[in-house]
Amino acid sequence: MLSVLPPIFLILFAPGFLIGCKSQELPKVEEHSTPVPQSAGDQTSRDTVSFLRHLADKHATQSWKDGPTRLDSPELRQAYPGFRFYFVSSPQPMPPGARPSASKSSRLEPGANPKPMLTLCVRFGPADQLDELRKTEDFNRGLMAIGTEDEARVAAAAILSTMDAFYLGPERFASSLIQVQKSATGWMCRLKTNLKEGKVGFDAGGKCITATLRYSGPFPG
Questions:
Q1: Under a CB-based contact definition with an 8 Å cutoff, are residues 76 and 172 in contact?
Q2: Cross-strand pairs, 87
Q3: Is residue 66 exposed (0-12), middle (13-18) or buried (19+ Cβ within 10 Å)?
Q4: What is the pLDDT of residues 173-197, one digit of tens each?
């Protein structure tokens, strides 16, 4: 579901000076989600402005292709109660022949050297604190207690939903896609779709100790 927020006056802080810009409409905020309650609209607007301020302050030399996008799902709500997730993404161009259905603009032309751009998922928590999700340990703050295979499955789906796969940006994953293997040392959770493979590991205490996601093909022959 794609939603466009109402016009507002954006105040963005950049290093050394203040930028004020009147936007005809706030940058599109796509919602990879089940429907967000109607009352969440104002909160989404405030979160998006805070996210844009953060990007201007901490990532002023970078840009992105898609977003800001709100990421929401039953798994994210259950695994991280009270937290809200957003991302910007810059999927890298596909190698020629990797995905015949990809548009020309999303494929890497021979000899091209694409400029690295920003892909970043953030989380808003208590008191609207914004945290970047970059390291495995970042996924543990606010994570629900994990004591069963079903809880590990939900948590893994939530964590993998916030991650990009280089050529593909974040997307929500249902817990039904996750396979769980229990051992004496914890849980190993695996995801495999047509385009992505990922795994999330939790120790016996429910702490996330590994999280990876990658593009799994097809690749050029």
A1: yes
A2: 69, 121
A3: middle
A4: 999 999 999 999 999 999 999 999 9
Per-domain residue ranges for the chain?
A: 2-215
Predicted local confidence at residue 93, as pLDDT:
80
Predicted confidence at residue 218, as pLDDT, reads: 77
| 116 contact partners, CB below 8 Å, separation of at least 6 | 90
Calpha distance 178→193 (Å, rounded): 10
Helix runs in the chain, H state only: 41-58, 74-79, 149-161
Name the region of 27 (left: φ>0; alpha: ψ -120 to 50; beta: rest): beta
- The total of other beta-carbon atoms located within 10 Å of residue 202's CB is 26
Phi/psi at 59 (5° precision): -135, 45
Contact call for residues 45 and 128 (beta carbons, < 8 A):
no
115: which residues sit within 8 A by CB, 6+ positions away?
none
12, 41, 49, 139 from 5: Cα distances, Å? 17, 8, 11, 28
76 pairs with which residues across the strands? none
